[in-house]
Queue: 3 jobs
Job 1
Amino acid sequence: MLKVALFFIVVCSSTAGELCISRAMKSIGEVKDFRPMALMRTVWRAVQVGILWVGLALMAAAFFSMLMLLSMENVSFVVPATALSYAAGAYGSRVFLGERVAHLRWAGVALVCIGVALVWQGKG
């Protein structure tokens, strides 16, 4: 049961963290100037956006949950199984960020989910 909870935490918190960071970075605008001082100004603006810190905290939770999971299971099982975050990311980008997700991308997500199901079945 703990392993299932950790998978859930890894998939959900990593995806939520990526969505939060994406929203934060979109709120400050596209980075077009890569000179050191311009990058420093961009970083300064980014760290002032609260949702960025939420995203970082969620990604930290995912990282430490992944460490716990890797201590219990084989990496050949954990890494492919956590690929469900791709499906969660596509869904979350559609729902929370209002992004358009093309049919071909949904087909790719379906293939990833089928792959995860095969990995789960072959765990034995």
Job 2
Amino acid sequence: MNQVKQQPSNWKVPFFTIWVGQAFSLIGSGLVQFALVWWLTTTTGSATVLATAALVAILPGVVLGPFAGALVDRWNRRIVMMVADGFIALATLGLAVLYAMGAMQVWHVYVIMFLRAIGGSFHWPAMQASTSLMVPEEHLSRVQGLNQTIQGALNIVAPPLGAVLLGVLPLNGIMLIDVMTAMLAMVPLLFVRIPQPTRNEAAQASGGLALVLSDVREGFRYIWSWPGMMLLGAIAAVLNFLFNPAFSLMPILVTKHFHGQALQLAWMESAWSVGMVIGGLTLSVWGGFRRKMLTSLMGLVFQGIGTLLIGLAPSSAFGLALGSMFATGFMNVLVNGPIFAMLQAKVAPEMQGRVFTLVGSVAGIMSPLGMAIAGPVADALGVQFWFVLAGAVCVLMAVVAFFVPALMHLDDTNGHATSKAAALAGTVGAQAE
């Protein structure tokens, strides 16, 4: 059922060949995302339209994520990434054709965003699960640091670059750039071999909805039988519930509390992204503490303190909020990077697609719930209250986690044993039925 990971000594060449191609694809996706949001804004001027677009982009990952993860664990991950890249490119190309014909409407954008999100629901777990089989365990944190760096750099570069390109290219021209970068991501996958986890031969050959559902249940049992993983998922859900709404309310904080304009909002967003880039570079060089949970929890404490300072900063202390925003972006990398590296190292290879998507789905569904509550609370008590609440809960959870053995020793546990326990539980359950 399990596979011993034996990465070749020259792992860097094949892995980074794929990684560079995927980085180009991320740039194209960032450009087209900015361009489509801007088109919706200038065409409709409706906050409801923008909120609907955001919801459409989130839902596939939340609803389809667990099933996508089960299929990723069953299928060849290299082919999954190629098909997902191609599917996203074709969807974008279709929208470009509609725009060139003068027929593009708002609902077309919704459909394409939904389809692109479906492709991403398969691509992301396939790439994460493949990384653990290509990169030696001692370098996983550094690779995650590089991933966070490219994400932060993209947040800095994509909006201004997208704005410049919109001034010189039609919208469908930017969409064609995304298609070309997707092709750049697919080419290395044609030639580079990605190791596959060993699965039971009968399970590998089987198909059908019932067996996919059985795989999803096995993923739930896997997480349920691993207390540290359950607690980690709960922390992620609470953080999404608090932090995503807080930073979605950033424009209100800047305009109503700090009496700023679009420039001040841009500074705040840039401070976060610059913090991510520097944090990612730091993690890629340093690698974090030997015990990855120590790095993540330390980062979580300081991320909470930074968020607290944003909420507590008086209206005359915009500089304090700006510095705190930088710190939260820096610490966000130290929180997430080691956790992803640890999951890649400790989760059984044949279970990684399901674990990543299940944890992501549970955490992701908390964002719209948090927004539904945060809006009225911010209207009643001020948006600063939500930042203070998010920061305080973040610090409290991190401090308590230091005294929870199941979390602190999560690095020492082995998901392969959990995989066997989950499989055994599934067998017993099936016999009981």
Job 3
Amino acid sequence: MGLYQNNFAKAFSKLIAMSGVTCYQIHNFTHLDQAYLSRLKSGEKTSPSPETIVKISLAICHFNDKIKLSDIETLFKSVGRSLRITG
């Protein structure tokens, strides 16, 4: 199990709850496997790739325009990454 496993599942579940977007909608928008998305949400699967997180984030923003960048940043932080550009 990865270090950030529980954090991603919690962050993903919270973002889905606050946005009202379903795993099915994310699947339709991204073509990510719906079962995989459910496993990410439950914590069964861990450490999604940055590309997967970007796809999920774009889908959530597509279906709910009230989601802020800071909300998306929590997904990245939950796996030890960031959207912020440093340098």
